[in-house]
Write a structure and sequence with these properties.
two-stranded parallel sheet, alpha/beta, 11 strands
Length: 334
């Protein structure tokens, strides 16, 4: 499977008005890709296209709600009408209701599933025929470490991300069986410093927060661009996410206890926020046309991601460590 260089690609990004999606669009544009950006917030899209144009890039905006199939289809239709093809699709749209499960209404839970999970499903339904026609391409979904380890107070969000991982695994298997060289990638960020927590609906009485440390959205954008050129199954972004994933695999019961003790009180800030304060669960919200959020002072660098960008070194190191372990085991036996 061989993907085009980024500078030769037409890339569609949904959820592009802020946060990870916006940063990703900017990074694609800087690498001379033709960029199609979509979201519900039209002011965010307009400012993004202006920013890309000022950088010397090329972009068009197509407002859409990813929970509506026909609106998602219009993104692909207009992309192909404009550029004649589609090479990479990036699903970065997400919303959340942060509250104890017993306080979440059926409509709120369903809306999170519709945006996060069904939005990515609709994207695949409309993008895949064009990727098949092109003969290659990449479908990249921004999931979350919560696809591997759920968080309390985020039942709908965690469920949607688990669903995304299951959907992508099934789709990937079908494409391999059929012999289509289309790359399916699941990007699993740790806690990222975006306006996500400003925009989420909450019933905690205060503005929610992730559990620090945070990572900057540029790290996730770097992973997405890597996957657009290099077929990649999945990538966890942020060292803390890798630790959580490992703990969940080896000591899930202990992880339940630790996460409950830390995440239930830890997701609350001291800033008052009522349930009916502006949020993006059902309607777009203005004022957050930025890549980063309010937690830059809590961000740290990530180091292990480098190995995903250099797989030969990654697996060579793993093989070397495995050989050392075998040698050590034989010495101990003697």
């Amino acid at each position: 499977m061989k993907l085009k260089p980024i500078e030769q690609q037409v890339v569609a990004i949904v959820g592009a008005s802020s946060g990870i999606g916006r940063e990703t669009a900017l990074q694609f544009a800087k690498r001379n890709a033709k960029v199609v950006v979509s979201a519900r917030t039209e002011s965010g899209l307009a400012s993004l296209v202006e920013e890309i144009t000022a950088l010397g890039g090329e972009a068009i905006a197509i407002p859409a709600d990813v929970a509506e199939f026909e609106q998602v289809k219009s993104i692909v239709d207009k992309t192909v009408d404009r550029y004649g093809r589609l090479d990479t699709w990036v699903h970065a749209a997400a919303t959340a209701i942060i509250a104890p499960f017993e306080q979440v209404t059926p409509e709120e839970f369903k809306r999170v599933i519709d945006v996060n999970l069904m939005g990515s499903v609709y994207g695949a339904m409309v993008a895949m025929p064009h990727l098949r026609q092109t003969g290659r391409g990449a479908f990249i979904a921004v999931s979350s470490v919560e696809a591997r380890r759920s968080m309390p107070l985020q039942s709908a969000y965690s469920a949607s991300k688990h669903g995304m991982e299951g959907f992508l695994d099934s789709l990937r298997s079908e494409l391999k069986q059929e012999g289509f060289p289309i790359s399916i990638t699941n990007i699993l960020p740790s806690v990222i410093n975006t306006p996500f927590y400003n925009k989420a609906r909450t019933k905690l009485g205060v503005m929610p927060t992730g559990i620090p440390p945070y990572y900057q959205p540029s790290l996730v954008a770097e992973a997405i661009l890597h996957a657009a050129e290099n077929p990649t199954r999945d990538m966890i972004v942020g060292d803390v996410g890798r630790v959580i994933d490992l703990l969940q695999k080896i000591v899930p019961d202990l992880t339940d206890t630790l996460v409950g003790a830390i995440a239930v009180p830890g997701q609350r800030t001291e800033r008052i926020k009522a349930t009916d304060d502006p949020n993006n669960l059902f309607e777009p919200i203005e004022g957050y046309n930025t890549t980063t959020g309010d937690f830059t002072d809590k961000t740290i660098p990530s180091f292990l991601d480098w190995f995903d960008f250099h797989p030969a070194v990654k697996w060579g190191t793993a093989a070397g460590l495995g050989a050392l372990a075998l040698i050590a085991a034989n010495i101990l036996k003697e």
